[in-house]
Amino acid sequence: MTRYHRTPGLRNRLQAMSCLAGVVCIAAWPEFPAAAATQAAATAHHPTPATAPVARPQTTTPRSAEDISVVSSRQALNGGGGMMRLETAPHTVQTVAKEYIEMRAPTSTALDLIKNLPSVSVSTPDTAGMQGGMIQVRGLTDLDMGLMIDGAPAAAAKYMAEDIDSENLEEVNVTPGSSATDLPVMSAAGGVMDERSHTASHKFGGLMDFSYGTNNLSREFLRLESGDIGNSGVRSYISFSHTHNRPWMGAGANDRQHLDFSVQKDWENGSTAKVFLSWNNEDFIIDNYPTAQEFYKYKHTGTGYGRTADPTSDNYWKNNNDHWNQVFLTAPLHLVLPARFSFDLQPYFSFGQGWDASPGNPIDNGAGGPYTGPNLTNFFLQNSTRQVGAVAKLGYRIDSHNEVSAGYWYENTYTLQSYPSGQTNPDGTPPSPWELYKTTAPYGQDAGYELHSLFVQDNAKYLYDKLVIHAGFKFVMANSWTADPYSRYNTNTTEPLPQLSIGYTFNEHHQIYVNAEGDYRQPSAVDMGWLPTSPNFLKNQYSIKEELGYRYHDKYIIADVALFNYNVTNRIVNQYVGMNSFSPFSIGNQTMRGFDVMVAGRSIHGFSPYASVEYLHATQDSDVLDPYSNTLIHSKGTQAVMAPRVMANFGLTYTYKGFFANGNVHYTGPQSVSVAGDQRMPGFVTDTLSLGYHFSPFLFAKSPTFRLNFTNLTGSIVRTGAMGVVYSAKDLNSHPVWSGNLAPYAGYGNSFMVEPRFSMTGTISTAF
């Protein structure tokens, strides 16, 4: 299984302190210090996983080295109520832990959970967890990131809820400036977000919760744990959830059914095998993302832009539906082999099928009047979207200081998409897209890529694990293709991806690190499906990134400061084209530099504060040709698009006996949303509040808990992100603008995601 490993020096130093305490107690035994030192040296080379607890020395009787007792605490690694974790990797890592996840609503997606990390600004369209959203990270977006579950590629950010339920999340970590050499990512210029799934319990039992809230939200979740099955070393769990709600704006209803399953086998020598499988079925209303004009009309007059309940309207909610089935599978295997060898294999697979329906009426009848014919429906039909791949890695421990590994990564991705259209049914529902596809043989495309990659890396530790060095190199070879019914085009690309990370721990409180690497973004198969079928493929985006960081921690606080610099060539951005779909285009080169600061307090009298800030100076380094107006945009030297200068967060957690509370405030500064810089989005503030109480066990209920979760406490009407990038505010949108029963019209400029109105979710839960 691919994991992020952290420096084990802290653990070994604490173990050494335990041994030193024993030495003081039995100073009369001169042979003991040598034995203790030998034992510490023998264990110094073993890596410590990122979730390993901090060991604390305990008072022991001076009988022998074997009598030393060590206890652990998961919370010893966390600050700010789980909003920050103590890290020692030689690159930036920002993590939210289980302690924080358990305070949030079960409807929270991974994007909801990372909203207060310093490097990201997150936009989400709903509060029910039906959809994901968008990420802005250091001047890039989620389309530039590797989004993973247990180290395997997961769904796009807009659909994060498809792959896992929040109850089955142990942690979510973001490495905004880094991607592990052995990680299977083909889009990591903006770093990686990795969700770690729940590990099956050794004991039989389970977890259940029930939620009800604003917008007629109802949600049920049940997880059953098998516990250890006999003496086989196998354990598993299965969970199911059902969510139903209505959109926060406009008419309609959303429904989601989700299943997670995992089975794990452990061996005594440290080998492990795990399978994680999820299935997701959902029908949700496609949001109507407003232009600036539509947004201000709603803000100043209250006139909404959502879907309508009128079946005679082309904007009827049942005629604006996303229907989707998704299967996700990953099966990491780690084998400890003789003679210092180890072998890791991680296969993964995902498959999705479904469609998006949207209004198809023309804007007018050519004479300036409204359309009077029968209502029409347009479809974005994905007959098949498939991703399959595997990473194989062979490791060898050269000595107590060095471990080298080499591996191979293969991936094959394919999408078959088409765009049928037809008359809307008399009751306002869409016709069958499958029948339209069969009978009208509409224009469509299939696209994909096949990828082969070789990598080698070395992890070294010196000076009693104080100095950690990672050096790696990955070479990626890809064949991309796109085709329509008449022609097929392909291209071959190669990308060299070097990486060097060095971390040095001065003592138990201070660490510095430097990290430099090359990452790239290759247009996805869906991206390529939207490209014109011609030999002019978009060039891969390439980034050269450097980081310099400093960390400090003691028994009161955890602090992390990171300075970064990115140089990006062939920057790829996406324009929203409606129907939850985007079209990619290139805007040349960009430079991003700035710093992140995170500070969290450990619990003091029940209070655990958290604060973070990022300053970003991002500039566009190229002029860009606007194909709509056929003019050259003189954008060189201007603020890069979707790159706010300042983002800041503050959080506070309080616990007292069974009571717990957590509040968060996030700020994102103003930003440009057009390449020409003639359309901007003002800064905004969002907030959340969680309150709850853990009751004493009662009968079968081991941890009965009640909690309330609130979002947008002030009811602010703000835009939280642009749906994509446009060349200029003067260019016509590529899709019509809708507002209730009003006739559609062509709008100018960008479309935006708006913060959902105030919401409250109440949840009762218990383990059993």
TrEMBL record:
GO molecular function, one term: siderophore uptake transmembrane transporter activity
SUPFAM superfamilies: Porins
UniProt GO cellular component terms: cell outer membrane
GO terms classed as biological process: siderophore transmembrane transport
Keyword line: Cell outer membrane, Membrane, Receptor, Signal, TonB box, Transmembrane, Transmembrane beta strand, Transport
InterPro entries recorded: Beta-barrel_TonB (IPR000531), Beta-barrel_TonB_sf (IPR036942), Plug_dom (IPR012910), Plug_dom_sf (IPR037066), TonB-dep_rcpt-like (IPR039426)
PANTHER family in the record: HEMOGLOBIN AND HEMOGLOBIN-HAPTOGLOBIN-BINDING PROTEIN 1-RELATED, TONB-DEPENDENT OUTER MEMBRANE RECEPTOR
Family (UniProt): Belongs to the TonB-dependent receptor family.
Listed name of the protein: TonB-dependent receptor
